[in-house]
Amino acid sequence: MKAFCFDVFGTVVDWRTGIARAAEGFFSRHGLGQYDPQGFADAWRQLYQPAMQACRSGKRPYTRLDVLHRENLEATLAGYGIDIGALQPGELEALNSAWHWLDPWPDVVSGLARLKRQYIIAPASNGNIALMVDMAKRAQLPWDAILGAEVTQAYKPSPQAYTRMADILAVAPAEICMVAAHNNDLSAARQCGLSTAFVARPTEHGPGQATDLEPSEDWDIVARDFNDLADQAGC
Questions:
Q1: Any idea which fold 15-100 has?
Q2: DSSP 3-state helix, strand, coil percentages of the chain (rounded to 5)?
Q3: Measured at the alpha carbon of residue 102, what is the angle toward residues 215 and 177, in degrees to the nearest 5?
Q4: Where in the chain do CATH 3.40.50.1000 domains reside?
Q5: Residue ranges of the chain with pLDDT lower than 70?
Q6: Could you tell me where in the chain the CATH 1.10.150.240 domains are found?
Q7: Is the dihedral of CA 125, 141, 201, 19 positive or negative?
């Protein structure tokens, strides 16, 4: 093993809490206290995969995630009956930028620091480069490189999203361990020859989460958290 590459939204950072926090502030400023911030975060996130699928299927060219998030935000606000035209200039961009400022799970920074001593560590995220850099600066994520969709020009689980990382790092696919809290991400990575590590995040989708609570396959590593992952990697 030479590198560990990480899914980010849900695996490295707690997107739901961060987006709900930003939504709560937005609702408060606009006297929209009747809306549930967590529900809004979920509704916004539900448009994530369909938006990327349009790029994966060739219906539109690769489009960076910041743009897709902004389009999805406008659609979500419209679905809530909020008049986008009545907002002050910059408000939508400020709310959209909440994806740049998410908090890591408590074990992440220490676990990544340990892994970095022996291995290349990098995000393998659908997030674009500017988003990943901002997030890393705020959350103190010690990446060696920024990989992911904007670098590979492909959204996971497209094969190119995984195989191009190996090309870029000049290693064999099996020398990269894909780390994710999502079994489907790991399944796609395994099909491309990558090694795999599952780290459950049982509250990613809130207290009622019913998916990805357990590994669905015999992944190469199953870890409790990033520090356990570092233990199993010999760091």
A1: DNA polymerase; domain 1 (1.10.150)
A2: 50, 10, 40
A3: 35
A4: 3-14+102-232
A5: none
A6: 15-100
A7: negative
Taking the C-alpha atoms of residue 179 and residue 6, their distance in angstroms, rounded to an integer, is 5
**Collapsing DSSP states into helix, strand and coil, what is residue 204?**
coil
Q: What is the distance between the alpha carbons of residues 143 and 159, in angstroms, rounded to a whole number?
A: 23
Residue 153 phi/psi, 5-degree rounding, is 60, 35
Helix (H, G, I), strand (E, B) or coil at 171: coil
* Residue the block writes with tokens 């695996």: 11
Task: Burial-class residue 4 by CB neighbours within 10 Å (0-12, 13-18, 19+).
Answer: buried
Give the pLDDT score at 7. 98
Let me know: does 81 contact 75? Beta carbons within 8 Å: no
Q: 108: part of which helix (H) or strand (E)?
A: helix 108-116
Q: Which residues of 61-92 are buried (b: 16+ CB within 10 A; e: fewer)?
A: eebbbbebbbebbeebbeeeebeeeeeeeeeb
Interatomic CA distance for residues 120 and 136, integer angstroms: 15
Indicate the burial class of 148 (C-beta count within 10 angstroms; 0-12, 13-18, 19 or more).
Answer: buried
pLDDT at res. 32 = 87
Structure tokens that stand for 127 in this block: 């997030």
DSSP 189: H
Q: Residue with structure tokens 């990613």?
A: 204
Measured in degrees and rounded to the nearest 5, phi and psi for residue 121 equal -125, 135
* CATH class held by domain 3-14+102-232: alpha beta
Which pTM was predicted? 0.96
Q: Residue 158's pLDDT is what?
A: 97
